[in-house]
Amino acid sequence: MRSLIRLLPGLILFCMVLTGVHARSKVLRPSKDDFYTPPPGFENEKPGAILKSRTLPHNSLAVASVFRQNLESVYQILYRTSDGLGAPVATVTTLFVPYGADPLKLVSYQAAEDSSAIDCAPSYTYQSGSSFSDAFIQAEPLFMASYFRRGWSVSVPDYEGPKALFGVGAMAGKATLDGIRAVLSSCSFTKIDPMADVQMWGYSGGSIPTGWATELHPSYAPELNIVGAVLGGVVVSPNGTMNTINQQDEKGLVFPFYRGLANQYPDMAAYLDSVIKPEKRKDYDRVNDLCLTGIMREYKKDDLSTYFSEPDYVNHPTVKKALEENVMGQLDTPTIPLFMLHMEFDKLAPFSEVKELYSRWCDGGASIQFNIDASSAHTTHLLLGAPDALLFMESRFDKKPIQKGCSTTGKSLSKIDSHSLSALGSLLWNAWVGLNGIRLGAKNP
Ligand SMILES: *[C@@H]1O[C@H](CO)[C@@H](O)[C@H](O)[C@H]1NC(C)=O
């Protein structure tokens, strides 16, 4: 993530200067916006039931909170789902519909929020006029442009829910599947066909909801027609990932992971509260107010282990339980055809865990195309892998025959073939079209 995060602000500033930045309109933060509060009795509704909806301006999706994307329509839906312990909660999904949309094609895009702050939910940070708080996810609409230009609609669930449960797998997975249910029952105002084919996408932090959704799908939402899913930079276990992160400049990312889990497990939160050093209390609490970029900036040199008076807090039963419960690969083998991409020397999400997950799922009968890159940055592969992932999604929507079973391919910049190269070219071109405010849609001029 580092290279992209370092590059992006400069790149975005450069583009801002080039295109001229419009005055910002103010958008209410989720913590201040009544729309996020469910009506009384919502607990009795079915998972995925629509509780509220609203229409946003058609150009409210923005890259870096300023570059408005010109779409046909944008909707938000508050729907019922469950947290990681099964308690009913309400969360929001935002649906982006391009011009000339194919009502039968929907992508559920799980953003890499990586924060334990409610105000970092993508329903807010993706909007023009939100504060520029998260270079990574606020750049993700650059990828979506390629979906829009194919006429695919995109929904982005706030899969961490109202308690900002970063790292809680069951919350993330259920909110993703229930978000799809909500969008598929929104036809009366969004025109999305209830029988639409659905695919899921998630990279890095977004791989948590996507991976958990693929594993929960057979038991929790078998009725959903999900025809493919892309999982990249896969975060299999919070502990494995935090142990790797703690060796890197990205140390700060450990904080929202811990806070996200503590937001879900009261016994873990109470325990950590009892061992936090008094002089660290303020910094420890401030994490729940920061998005990814702020966390990386302000906690760069901080090691969470120096915050607690108990050196072996990781192995306290309450912490251990939370860490163990949120490891991917403990539920059903996904039946959805998968495209996975990961770097062999990924410095944030350890490859060994992903390889193990891949083998387990393959042994269980999954169909997976696994694209491995021999480099070490967490995000460069996103650019190399995304075109192939896009081609995979295209073939799934086109109902091309599924490649049964598992296969791995290597990918590197030197070996990139002409097919992927042209897909990469078109991905960048589509992003450029979006940045310039040109209509994004299937019947583009
Ligand atoms: C998490 O990692 C730490 C450090 O390696 C280890 O002591 C602990 O047992 C691990 N916990 C779990 C649940 O895997």
Automatic annotation (TrEMBL):
One example GO MF annotation: triacylglycerol lipase activity
Cross-referenced SUPFAM superfamilies: alpha/beta-Hydrolases
InterPro entries in UniProt: AB_hydrolase_fold (IPR029058), Lipase_secreted (IPR005152)
Secretion signal span: 1-23
Annotated source species: Absidia glauca
A Gene Ontology biological process term: lipid catabolic process
Pfam families given in the database record: LIP (PF03583)
Protein name: Lipase
The entry's keywords: Hydrolase, Signal
Family: Belongs to the AB hydrolase superfamily. Lipase family.
Source organism, top-level taxon: Eukaryota
